[in-house]
Amino acid sequence: MASAPPSEASVESRVRQEVDRALSRAVKGLEYISTGDPGVGLTPKDVIYSRGTLRLYHYRPLSDEIYRVPVLLIMSLVSKPYILDLTPGQSLVEFLLKRGFDVYMIDWGVPRAQDHVLRFEDYVLDFIPECITKVQGDSGEEDVSIAGYCMGGVLSVMYGALHPDGPLKNLACFATPVNSDGMSLMKQWSDRRYFDVDRIVDTLGNVPPEMMYASFDMLRPASRVAGQVRLWDNMWNDEFVKSYRMMDRWGADQIPFPGECFRQNTKEFMWENKLFKGTMEVGGRPVRLSDIKAPFLHVVAEHDHIVPYDAAKDLVKLVGAEDKREIMLKGGHVSLVAGGNAIYRLWPQLDSWLAERSL
């Protein structure tokens, strides 16, 4: 039996709704163009240690009742850390504070020309251990939990493998690659037959952010246009527009990659896949992920185009901890950790996992 045609009142209501939304889009579009960038990284914090461009933040606790074990957040070398502290109500840092955690973060800063000499050795044998020492002194606790995002996760597992008897209480990683063979498009982009990494680093020193940004765009060339279409469709929605603006700002706000570390990452991680094969050495010391014994959590995104699941799925298998777990959540590389998707998916999972291991 055929359904009844919509009533005249129903059609009129739907037309009026679409007209109202179209007008709202136009007004909001003018506001979007004319207003400045939204504020980010606003959670109150103190710099407790600095060295070169590095800053170690301690976020001010919201109460005297906090979990015993502090949490140290570690970001990628090519992205600014405010993706984890976007804005009130959309900040992982703020969420963790409200849940009773004592939160610290390493901000690597924007590398200077003289920082082109930095290598993995500097980060995992010097900078991270020094920051952990500062966290211990500031918090008064020996144990420290680490949460690393993307390449920050790579640095974190390297640290954990090289310091098996260190103060690492728990280790959580988000969207962290370990098997470069699974990064098929990035692997093609950096094919050693055509990609002269030595010439790039020897000529430029630090690798410009424009080059890194273009490489990420090439992994999903239509995503920017699709994103702009979604923005226009949702221009009437203030919360969507606010979130889009902050995400878009962060995505375009990349920083240079320290040259020698880029050379090392390209040759040893991308080309030779040493971390996965267990043949990587840092400062002459073998990096064996099986040496990581601390409780381990890896959260991956179902639709991650930067770190596809094939590049991330072996990490939990390689880590030597008895208490280890992988969680796959809906979302992409960025929406895994920030925005509405993260608020309802990743953040509660991280809270639950850390809470029972931070007493």
**Proportion of residues in extended strands:** 5-15%
Distance between the termini: 63 Å
By CATH, the architecture is named: 3-Layer(aba) Sandwich
Largest sheet features: 8 strands, mixed
Radius of gyration: 22 Å
Number of domains: 1
Ranges with pLDDT <50 over ≥5 residues?
25-35, 222-229
CATH class: Alpha Beta
Question: Could you say which structural class the secondary elements and strand pairing correspond to?
Answer: alpha/beta
What series of H and E elements makes up the topology?
HEEEHEHEHEHHHHHHHEEEHHEHH
Could you name the CATH homologous superfamily?
Alpha/Beta hydrolase fold, catalytic domain
State the strand order across the main sheet.
Answer: 1-2-4-3-5-6-9-10
Q: Examine the coordinates and then state which fold CATH places here, giving the name of the CATH topology.
A: Rossmann fold
Helix content: 40-55%
Count of helical regions: 15
Shape: globular
Number of strands: 10
Overall pLDDT confidence: 86
Q: Main attributes?
A:
single chain; 359 residues; eight-stranded mixed sheet; 15 helices
Topology summary:
Layout: H1 8-34, E1 45-51, E2 54-59, E3 71-74, H2 92-98, E4 103-107, H3 120-139, E5 144-149, H4 151-162, E6 168-174, H5 184-189, H6 197-204, H7 209-219, H8 223-233, H9 238-252, H10 259-271, H11 274-277, E7 281-282, E8 285-286, E9 296-301, H12 309-312, H13 315-318, E10 324-329, H14 340-344, H15 346-355
Parallel strand pairs: 3-4, 3-5, 5-6, 6-9, 9-10
Antiparallel strand pairs: 1-2, 2-4, 7-8
Helix pairs in contact: 3-4, 6-10
